[in-house]
Amino acid sequence: MSQALDKTPALQISPLVSLLDEDVAISVNGLNPHEKVCLICQTCDEEGMVWRSTAIFAADEKGTVRLERQAPLEGSYHGIDQMGLFWSMRPINGAESCFFSAKKIDPMSFEITVECESKKSVSKILTRLKIAEGIERMEVREEGLVGVYFFPKGKQNIPALIILGGSEGGIKEPRGALLASRGFATLTLAYFGVVGLPKQLKGISIEYVQKGAEWLKARQEIDPKKVGLLGSSRGAELALIAASFFPGTFQALVAYVPSCAIYGGLPDIHSDAWLYQGKPIAPPAPFPLEESQEEIGDFEHPVACTPYFLQGMQEGSFSDSLIPVERIDCPLLLISGDRDAMWPSSTFSDLMMEKLQKAHSGIWREHLCYSGAGHFIAIPNFPTTNQVIFHPALLAWLNFGGEPQAQARSCRDSWKETIQFLKRFLYNF
C-alpha cells in the first residue's frame, strides 16, 4: 500500500459552531486523485433516537472533495447540496415512523466521519445552535398568557413577533429562538395543550392573540409600532383571523401552510375552534370526515386529508366560513407546498390572493408556493426524510406530503424569505 494512500485525510468543517439556519462548508483534502470517500453524518435527537446519513464521493484531480461543488456518487441524497448530509438523515434502528424530535433549544452535536478506500478514518464534531449568544429566554405565565419570550439583551426599540404553532399544541421554542437570534424579540405563544390553557383545540378566544400583542407592546425594549405575527398550519389560520379582526395591531404577517377558511376544533371537527367575544366566528368549514373515519391508517398507509378538504370546498356553505382576509391591513407573506397532503395550502393561499385582488386590497402581499413540498415547511436543516406523523389529536397516521429534497429546499428558501420579509416591514430595511 502506498504512502499516499495510507495517510489520514484532512476533514475541514467551517464553522464548527454555528446557528442551525446557517450553512456549513465541509471538505476533505489529502486524498488520492479520484479516490472514493464516504462521509457519514450522525446525531441524536431529543428522544434519544440516533439519526444518520451517508454520501460517497470521488475526489477530484487534486484529491479534494467539496460538498458545495460536488454531487455524491450515491448515498442519502443526490445532486449538489451543501447541506444534504443534514436533511437526508434517517433513524438507524429502522424506526421509520419516528419524527425528528427537536422542541428544545439545547445545542445539537453532529459527528462527521470520513472513511476512505485506505480504511483510514477521521471524525470531527460540529455544534449547531438554536439560540445565539446574548439572547435572553423568559417563560411567560401572566395575564392568561402561556409562552416563551426571547429577546436580544440590552437592545431597545426592537421589532417583535408573535409565533403560533400548529394543531400539535404546546410550545415549540426553536423557531422563536432562531428568529430572536436574527434581531427580533419573539413571543412563542401556546394557545392550547399546556397547563393553564384549553386541553384541546376548541373554543380558543382570538382575543388571546391580541392580548399577546398588547403584552409585547408594553415591554420597554419593544417598538410598539413594529409587531408582527407568524403562524403555521392551524396557527396560520389563527394568525390570519386575528389580523383580520384586529386591524392596526400588526405590521407584518407570515402564514406558513395556511388555511383560507375557519375550520372546526380537534378532535371534534364539528365544534368551534375559534371564538370572538365569546361567540363562534363562523360555522366550521365543511370537511367530510365521516367518509374517512375508518382510514386511521398506519405508517405504511397514512391518511392524506387534502382530498377531503378539497371535497368540502365544493359545498355551497364553504364560502360562509372564509376568513375575511380583505380586512387585513398589514403586509402578508403566504408560504405553501404544492404537494401538501395535510390540507391544500397552495389552493387555500391562491384563493386568499384572489380574494384580496377582488377586494382591491392595497396591502403588500406575496404567495411563495414550493414545487414538490408538502405540509412540513419549517426551520431549515432538520431531517425531512419522514413526512408521516401520528397526530396526537386525531389519533391517526397522517401524510404531510412532499419529497424530502424539495422539502428541504422549501425550508431553507422560505426561512430566508421570511427573515427578509420581516426585516423589510418591521425594520424598514
Describe the structure.
This protein is α/β, with parallel strands linked by helices and 429 residues long. It folds into 2 domains: 3-129, Sandwich (Immunoglobulin-like), CATH 2.60.40; 135-426, 3-Layer(aba) Sandwich (Rossmann fold). It is 20% helix and 29% strand. An 8-stranded mixed beta sheet has the order 11-12-14-13-16-17-20-21, sandwiched between helices. The model is unreliable at 1-5 (pLDDT under 50).
Write the layout of secondary structure elements.
Elements: H1 3-6, E1 10-14, E2 17-19, E3 25-29, E4 36-44, E5 50-58, E6 65-66, E7 74-75, H2 84-87, E8 90-91, E9 108-116, E10 121-129, E11 135-142, E12 145-152, E13 158-164, H3 174-181, E14 185-189, E15 204-205, H4 207-217, E16 222-232, H5 234-245, E17 252-256, E18 274-276, E19 279-280, H6 306-313, E20 332-337, H7 345-358, E21 365-370, E22 388-391, E23 396-399, H8 404-426
Quick synopsis:
The chain has 8 helices and 23 strands.
Gyration radius from CA atoms, angstroms:
23 Å
CATH superfamily of the largest domain: Alpha/Beta hydrolase fold, catalytic domain
Q: How much beta, percentage-wise?
A: 25-35%
Q: CATH topology of the largest domain, anyone?
A: Rossmann fold
**Which CATH-level-2 architecture of the largest domain?**
3-Layer(aba) Sandwich
Structural class: alpha/beta
Largest sheet: 8 strands, mixed
Number of domains: 2
Strand order within the widest beta sheet: 11-12-14-13-16-17-20-21
Range of helix content: 10-25%
What is the arithmetic mean of pLDDT? 93
Distance between the termini: 59 Å
Q: DSSP helix count? A: 8
How would you sum up the global shape?
A: globular
Number of strands: 23
Query: Are there runs of 5+ residues with pLDDT below 50, and where?
Result: 1-5
CATH class of the largest domain: Alpha Beta
